[in-house]
Structures are given as structure tokens and as C-alpha cells.
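Reply to thread "Modeling small-molecule complexes from scratch"

Following up on the discussion above, here's a worked example others can learn from. I took a protein sequence and the SMILES for 2-oxoglutaric acid and predicted the complex. Inputs first:
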Amino acid sequence: MPDIALSTFTVTPVSPAIGARVGGLDLSRPLSDSEAAALERALVAHQVLFFENQPLTPKAQRDFAARFGQLHVHPIYPKVPEQPEIMVLDTGPHNPSDNDVWHTDVTCIETPPAIVALSGKLIPPIGGDTVWASNIAAYNGLSEPIRRLLEPLKALHDFTRSFPEWRHNGDPETHARWKTARDKHPAVVHPVIRTHPVSGAKALFVNENFTSRIVGLSDRESAAILEFLYDHISRPEFTVRWRWKEDDLVLWDNRSTQHYAVNDYSPHRRIMHRATVLGDRPY
Ligand SMILES: O=C(O)CCC(=O)C(=O)O
Ligand SMILES: [Fe+2]
């Protein structure tokens, strides 16, 4: 039977490796089951979906994201007071961004997020783009002998690498919140190559922000391999870059991508709202 939901929105790729623009959907109204399923298929296929003109209240963004699974409440970043599942990234000269590093979100937990929905609330007149990279394209871009070398390896992902104490000890309350979060987040081990639970595609699963070392290698071996992989993952061929407008919403598959928030908009301010859907344990 044809999927009638497919006719209700359009999906237009914006780069060969990753990213597609979605048109014809109003995300402020509840999605039908078939629309949600079709969107999830488009997301797995394109890894990042760009929606334009989607002015969502925090509750509407929460409800939209919750169609895809259980939401994560971030232990450190500020949230919308009445909607704790919506994290607020309010950056500028008053609060410099710490997302100008390649990363996959929250890989320091056993079940890192599967899907993230980010909404642009206040966008600088120029700058503040976000770049995503496909970890599947990056894996496919490796030679067969290197894939075989990486296949059995596992890596440590460490909360304190992304959230170092020095950045979170400015006042007693911030420091106490950091200590509680650190105690709840011992380092976790994930495979260096993961298999996407829906598509079965293989993807690199290390990132500069959380991955501290490859297990079982010497310090120098681990550092050299990670440095090569971080450099490889960010090659322009594997990436897509988005110039935000207010009320754009970007949905990304956090199981197969990483991203980098370009920090080039000083002295302007930039505000984003994020909803984060938990995923499965990587294998
Ligand atoms: O602000 C951005 O463009 C991305 C920030 C980020 O890393 C995130 O929301 O996970
Ligand atoms: Fe992020």
C-alpha cells in the first residue's frame, strides 16, 4: 500500500553525503503516526533534516520531539523553567559557546541521544552557522584495512572531558551542580564503530568532545588514531553547513552524525532551544 504520509511533505537533499530540507509540514500541530514514521525514515536516510518557518513554543517543541521517544533532561545546561526537557543555549559575549568543537551529543551516558531537535530563537545577523558531519560517510571513506583495525576497538567517553571542572566552578551553586552531575556520570565504553539500529549502516562513533581514549592501546597509539579519526570525520565531503534563520528547526540523527557550532558571531547574541531524545545502547 502506498504511504499516504509521503505525499504530505517534500524532502530535498542539500548535499550528497548528509542533510535534506523538508517542506510542507507544520510542526506545531500533532503529527499523525504515519507522518512521524515517514519523518523518521527520512531522518535515518538523510541524517539531518532542515525545517523552515516553524515558530514553536517550548511545549510544542517538546511534544514534537517526544513523538520520537523518551526525552533527556540535561544535567548541566540551563532549561526553560516550565519545560525542563527544553535546554537553552544562550550564547554571546556574556556567555561564550562551548559547542565550537566537533561532537555527538551526550555520548558520556550508556544510552546516548538518538535524535535531537534544535530550534533557532535569536540568530545573529551574520555567522553562528552549524556544521554537521556524517559518521556513516566518514566510515565509508576509510580503507578496508583501517576499517578492520577499528572494528573490534572500544573507546572511553568521559563527562569531564566535555564539562571540565574549571568551566563549571564559577559560583558555589554551579560547582555543586557540576559535582552532582560528575558523580552520576562515570566514564562509559562504546564501540569505535557502531551499527545504526534502524538502517544497519556502520558509523564511526568517537568524538573529540567526549572520547578520551581507545581501550587497550598505549597512550600514544590511542592519541594518534583518535587524532587521525577526528581529522578524517571533519572533511568537507562528509559535511553540511546550515545558515540559520529564526524559527528554523533542525532535526538530527545523533547516532550517525556529529556537529560543530561555529563561534564567529561576537559581539552578537544567539539563542537556541534543544530537545533531546534518548537512544539505545550503541553496538
Ligand atoms: O547551537 C548550535 O548550533 C548547536 C549546539 C549544540 O551543540 C547542540 O545543541 O547540541
Ligand atoms: Fe551538540
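What I'd highlight from this example: The chain has one domain: 4-278. Residues 1-7 have pLDDT under 50 and may be disordered. Questions welcome below.
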